[in-house]
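In keeping with the milestone schedule agreed at the kick-off meeting, the structural modelling team has produced records for the first pair of proteins. Each record is given below as a sequence line and a structure-token line. The laboratory manager (R.T.) confirmed that both were archived under the project's standard naming scheme.
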Amino acid sequence: MRPRVLVAGIGNIFLSDDGFGVEVVKELAGTDLPEWVRLADYGIAGMHLAYDLTAGYETTILLDATPHGRPPGTLSLIEADVGDNAAVTQIDAHGMQPEAVFRLLRLLGGDAGRVLIVGCEPGCVDEGIGLSPAVAAAVPAAVRAVTELAWGTRPELPVKEKTEV
């Protein structure tokens, strides 16, 4: 069966809590996900993500550190608007700017489908490997949320308004 859902862990593991998405993907690898879900750790490889998205998915779930001024470890579910309004002037093959990824995807003729972001408020994005205690404690809840999304149920996370990326 062709995967219908892509779960993409993104972030820089060398910047502490920015590695949240990568850590959640590691934990998800040991869970019971439907066969239509594909897990991938993209780290900071935005171009790789854009190319993989050209395969066509109904839903793309991004896992990322998302600063919104809330307490560290706070999870949120964000529905992203990846329409043509996202302006990008430069595409970095070794970067992970979501707007650049989706711009490249449009240039390649691809479509990410519905884009959801399971985000976590970072506490520290200084150089260093490993999540802060508050963000590490949020990983199991993020795993549950992604599992629920993959099976088609709505997780109990604060929902942020639709945001453009």
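The second protein of the pair:
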Amino acid sequence: MTALYSSAEIRRMEQAALSQLPPYTLMQRAGKAAAEAAISLLPGSAHKARILVLVGPGNNGGDALEAAAILTESGAEVVALLPVDMTSQPPDAANALSRAARAGVHFMPPEQFTTIDGIKWSLVIDGLLGIGLKRPLDGALRSLVATVNTFTSPLLALDIPTGLDAETGMVVGPDGISIIADATVTFIGDKIGLHSGDGPEYAGKVTVAGLDIASRQLLPSQSALNAPELFSSNLQPRARNSHKGSFGSVAVIGGAGGMAGAAILAGRAAAKSGAGKVFIGFLDAAPSYDSAQPELMCRHADDIDLATATLVVGTGLGTSPPAHAILVKALQAQSHLLLDADALNLIAVEPGLQQLVAQRSLSVYPKRLTVMTPHPLEAARLLGISTTEIQSDRLAAARSLAQRFNAVIVLKGAGSIIARPDGYAVVNPTGNPALATGGSGDVLSGICGALLAQGWSDWHAALGAVWLHGCAADMLVSQGFGPIGMTAGELIPAVRSLLNELTKK
């Protein structure tokens, strides 16, 4: 399991390690890891490679200087830009500056900074600012980052790309700018912001250099990166002596006029994700059957037995009085429950429904929490804040929703966040812009409903569904089916293939 840490946790672990090590040891380790990562990005060896190193104040700049010294000793032609006064550095960074000078690193004076775009660099290393950035880049630093982002050479960020918030994964500032890296080597532990929000686009491929810190100095983490190992206990081959009743029933409730497709997509996803039986309860007149998936049992919502199936409520539900009435019945039913789309919109405007959700796991079904799958706008409505506020700290928003509704929350988006009421959260690394299409969320709901019906816990079902949903999109894009123009329905057979692959003996 890959643990994710906050900046405060990283600093605490760093200080614990520094107190037990000789001075400069940790910086030497970081520089060595950075140099190795840099060499891996070069098309050939380091010999004669032209490498530009952007050096900032403090220890992040010190790590960059140590890497610059190692690369110079490996035969590279290294130029270091020092855009700030380096005369009052912390001891380790000052040591790195002296070592880089002795190694023969060329220090470019500020008056020559404008010439860097006229040189063909083999690699650029970003060691400007570390994890503590809270203000948007401006002035000369902003101009430098903008210039570097136009280069075609590979770009390696140290710890986190300059301009990116390590906590939220967002570029700092409403009109902010950040280094766009091809790869990031991050130190001590992985950072939440590298995997959520803008993080995946700006950080590139992330590797973690633990710097040989003793395990006793590592803190227990309150978040992690999603992976099959987190839900693998549920990935068991099916027994030969099984039947459709062995794999549960899903009832999708939604499909109001003009939105029947949403419920059908969720139902098809549930069927092909392994549910034994799938019902679709339509708010309006139900079609006789789904011609593309005749196994689905189409009925009017009022004719669905809400007590005998896992309920997926909200896909194409609408916000009419009948929609409200069926939602109340679902909240009162003693069934596993996933809430999405219009179910969330109805809940957002009515305190009574919010109370029903929050009390469900205690009074109605003690062994299971409700699963809620909002996108940022729905999350904003549920919390009574703006979408901008949600996106500015997605992790905090997901945790707040989980606590408020005593539910497992899936906050959808780049680096979807799965959070539970005790504050533990998982960031999902799979997925791509192909998922930004109508119906994608309905498919996710159907997948999660099927896993719940097959006996997965609320937490494991949410983790598994989000990972599979994103991985299916990644697989389809790798095969040339996106990201442009991929439709939600195409995800469904890909998810089925992944599930079967994961459950092989």
